[in-house]
Amino acid sequence: MITLNAHAKINLSLDVLSKRQDGYHNLKMIMQTLQLHDTITIQEIKSGIEIECEAAYVPNNSSNIAYKAAEKMVVKYGLDAGVRISIDKKIPVAAGLAGGSTDAAAVLKGVNSLFKLGLDQQELMEIGKTIGADIPYCIRGGTALAEGIGELITPLPRMEPIPVLLVKPRFGVSTASVFKSLEIDKITDRPKTELLINALQRKDTHFIANNLCNVLESVTAARYPLIDKIKKDLITKGAIGSIMSGSGPTVFGLFDDTEVAKKAFGILKKSRNDCILTYITND
Ligand code: ATP
User: Fold this and answer.
1) What are the binding positions for ATP in this chain (predicted)?
2) Could you identify which of 119, 202, 278, 279 might form a hypothetical disulfide with 265, taking C-beta atoms 3.0 to 4.6 angstroms apart as the criterion?
3) One of 15, 38, 103, 134 is an active-site residue; which one?
C-alpha cells in the first residue's frame, strides 16, 4: 500500500495563443503548486480497478481520471494484479485547481512505486499527457511554464512561499464551455509572461502579484459577476494581487503579510457564505 499527496495548482498567468485544428488550444501558463492537497491511497488487489471517493460530484467509476491513470498503467505494463484507489478529496471540484489531473498524476507515480516499474519523471509525464494535458505539470509540480496544450513543461525558479487565500464560489465551471465562449481575436489584456519569469528569477513577489493575468477570467466573470466581487473583496482586505485560477471559478489572493491574510480569511469567511474559503501558502 502507498499513500501520496496530490497537490492543487493555481495559475499565476494563463494565455491562450491560438486554437488548433484538433479543437485544443495553444496555451502559455505559469503554474504554481499549493500546499492544499488530496490524499491518494493505492493498494494492490488481485485484479481490476476499484475506486472510492466520498466527495460530491466526483465519479466512483471508470470516468474518474484517477481510474483512467491506473488502467493505463495496468494495461501498458501488463501488470498481473489490480489496484484499489482511495481519494480523500480536499481540493474543490471543478474549481480551476487541477483537482482531477493531480489525482491522476499521483496514481501514475504511486503505481510506478508500488509495482517497482522504475519509470523516471519524464517517462511518467509522457504517459500522463496521453490521459490529460495538465497531468505532466502535476507530476512535476512546483513553479513551471506550461506550453503547447499544457503538456510542455519548463521548470521555473521557485516562487517564494507566501500566504494565499482561495475563494471558491459554491458552483463548478466546465473548462470546455469556457474555452468554447472565448473569442481569441478579441483578447486585449494578455499576461506579460516573460516579465513574470524575470520577476520569479529576482524573487520580486510584488511584481508577480501586480501582474497576475488570466485571459479566461473575463469569460467566466461575464457569466458570474461574483468573480469580480471576490477580487474586489480580496484587494480591499489587503491582498497584493488577485485573479481567477484556470477556467475558474476559484479566485485567489496573494498576501505579503500573514496577519493581514489571516484577518482577511476571518472576515471573508463570515461575509461570503456563497463561497468556500481556504487559507494556505503556495509551495
Ligand atoms: P482544471 O483546473 O484541470 O481545468 P478543475 O480543477 O477545473 O480542472 P476538476 O476538479 O478536475 O476540475 O473536475 C472536473 C470534472 O472532472 C468534474 O466535473 C468531476 O466530475 C470530474 N472528475 C473526474 N475525476 C475526478 C477526480 N479524481 N477529482 C475531481 N474531479 C474529477
Assistant:
1) 92-102
2) 279
3) 134
